[in-house]
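Regression check, S-adenosyl-L-homocysteine case 333:
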Amino acid sequence: MDRAELSIVCQQLGQPAFRGAQIARWLYDKGVRDFASMTNLPSGLREEIARSHSIFRCEVSAKARSADNATKYLLKLADAQTIESVLLPYPDRTSVCVSTQIGCPAGCVFCATAMCGFVRNLSAGEIADQVLTLQQDGGQRISHVVMMGMGEPLLNFDNVIKALHLLNDEIGIGMRRMTISSVGISPAIDKLRDLDLQITLAISLHAPEDNLRQKLVPVSRKYPLDELMRSCTDYTNHTRRRITFEYLLLAGVNDSVEQALALAELLRGSLCNVNLIPYNEVQGLDYKRPTRDAISAFRNVLQESGIEVTQRMERGHSISAACGQLRRRHISD
Ligand code: SAH
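Current build output:
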């Protein structure tokens, strides 16, 4: 709940509305886990609200830290389901990668999360709580949030939008410092466009043509590339925000110079940049990361076509940091 919703609860209990803002500060600034700790509230209110409402916070059930200081968390929710979040400290900012669903229905053939199947959507509270929990556990203020953990954010649209508002209004993270990464659900991109948020939209493209894309990202059969590119162009025209196209590099599958040229052609004239993601190998899957030379050849083709290219920093390789790997390890243990 945000301040306004908490105020309504307080008013229903016969209390002044400002108590709602006080509770919000205890929840989102101090991160308390029970009403008894909210010492500036009358004790009667604390007891009464605790009878009708609960504070659900996740618990840290495992942590793995890599040599470069990325920490991957396995978090346990109220129903004992587990999700992953990653804390990524950089010199100039601290970023958290959050999950939006338990498992994922998109079925990407290279992805460890897809191997777990789909369990359920996360609530807005469960999404925002990951940031609060990592901020408290890591002892440093979070400046950036990327929704690139387990799940497909645009298939959990309402809860993801509500989580963005909670993170922005209550936890104080600027909209411009938040990113949603999606496989490209065109109707949801259209809905997002109309909300006109200042967030960054990242689209997992991974192939420059439908045939290969539909093999790698099966859910994309419903949203062919011409429809996806149409919704992306509408999105940038409307919001004036540049889209990031993510392109996972899989050796011998989508990393050839011809495919780089086709990608440059597909993106010609778009307000975008490309984020190249060298594959993090997943146990039990045959996909391989391309060689350094293949990665730079691919990158050069894009740059020579005038496309701005970034390459995902290689972090957390040693801690099963690829989407879904830590949860899988714990489930199979
Ligand atoms: N469902 C959303 C967000 C979660 S995945 C999406 O697909 O965008 C975030 C990114 O990590 C996606 O681009 C996804 O394709 C990529 N990814 C998944 N498994 C990976 C792996 N093993 N190595 C590298 N990137 C991976």
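Comparison notes: Residues 3-52 form a domain with the DNA polymerase; domain 1 fold (CATH 1.10.150.530). The pocket of S-adenosyl-L-homocysteine is lined by residues 106, 108, 110-111, 148, 152, 181-183, 204, 246, 248, 277, 279-280, 282, 322-323 (CB under 6 Å). No diff flagged against the previous build.
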